[in-house]
Structure formats: C-alpha cells, structure tokens
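Supplementary Note 3. Input sequence used for the single-chain structure prediction.
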Amino acid sequence: MRMAVNLSPKKCVEPPVPMKPIKQLFFLVAAFMAVAAVARAAVEVGAPAPDFAVTDIHGKTHKLSGYKGKTVVLEWINPECPVVGKHYNSGNMQALQKAATSDGVVWIAINSGGKGKQGDYDDARAAAWLKEQNAAVTAYVRDQGGQIGKLYGARTTPHMYVIDGTGTLVYNGAIDSIRSGNPNDIPKAENYVAAALKAVKEGKPVAKATTQPYGCAVKY
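The predicted structure, written as discrete structure tokens, is reproduced below.
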C-alpha cells in the first residue's frame, strides 16, 4: 500500500491511477473465473464421486453410477506426455491396470485434451496406441470439451482417482511418491494407487487418500 506523506505546507496529492484497458480487464476477469470454476469443481475425498456418462473410442457408453458395487479407477492420460511415457514405457501403468482389472476393478482412461492439442489422438490412433502399449484399460475416453476433467478438477497427466463400490471417492492424486520423469525412480516409489486399491479390497480406509499429482498439465 502506498502512503502520501506531507513534507511541505503544500497538500500532497496522489497522482490518479490509470485505468487498465477494458480488453485487459476482460481477459483478467475471464481467467479468474475459469480458475475459480475448476477450483469449485474439484472433488472431495470421502464425498460421492460426480456421476458422468461418456462414450469410449469403441462407441460403448459408460456411466459411472452403472458401476456401483465395483471399484473404479479414473486415469487422466496424454499419450505424448513424458511422465505418462515414464509409466507406460516402463510397463508400470500396464502392470497396475492388469492387476486391478483382473481383480474386477473398472479402469477408465480419460484424455481431456482439447481438439488439436498435444496427445489428442483420434479413435483409431488411440486404439492403436493402447494396443502398442499392451494397456489393460476397461475404456479409453476422449473428453475433448474437458467436461469430465473439470468436473473432477484433473490437473495433470497422469492424475489418478479411486472410487469405491459405494460411489465414494477414496483417493485423489499422484500415481506414486516420487515426482519425476525418470523410470528408474519407479521401483523406489510408493505406489499410492496400488495401496488405495489394496485398502479398498480389504475394507480399510485409505491411509494416504489425497496427494499432490504430478506430470504434464492437462491440455484443456
């Protein structure tokens, strides 16, 4: 805060603050509202996970509430993100997917990249990429408008969520404890998603239910 100090008999007058251009103000307000909207939409661990219905790259519709009674993992993905590459090129993400889905878990990979943004593969290319990676997802969804991503407050790729059979969000955050793009860190890291799935299976509370996600920013 600036303070006017009277150092002479003359009255000290602050110069008028110039008005910011209307266009600049418009963009500042729009940016603030966009950030505020995502912040309001961010889901809370322990609360019901927001329902959604989407069509995957094979034309099949998935409704979250339709999986009641099953554990669901949501994985935010961008095939061209180096941190996603860390977990796929090493086979770490696929191993986690296979262990989960073989145990009856529903695994939905969601790409919230906008049209033409990095990693926005069309249906055929996305399917080919999944096959090449030997991924074991239940569904791959293109959320080009970012509706689901903003609904959940997804910020990075990967950003992981675990929802239990009652439809309650029980985990929100990173895949593991070492925030890096180096695959050599994977064996040394604590896998938060694996731990959350184990806790849900055993009927126990998730010890670390919220962590800071890391990776590339979601390309809304």
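Confidence is low (pLDDT under 50) at residues 1-41. The two ends are 37 Å apart (CA to CA).
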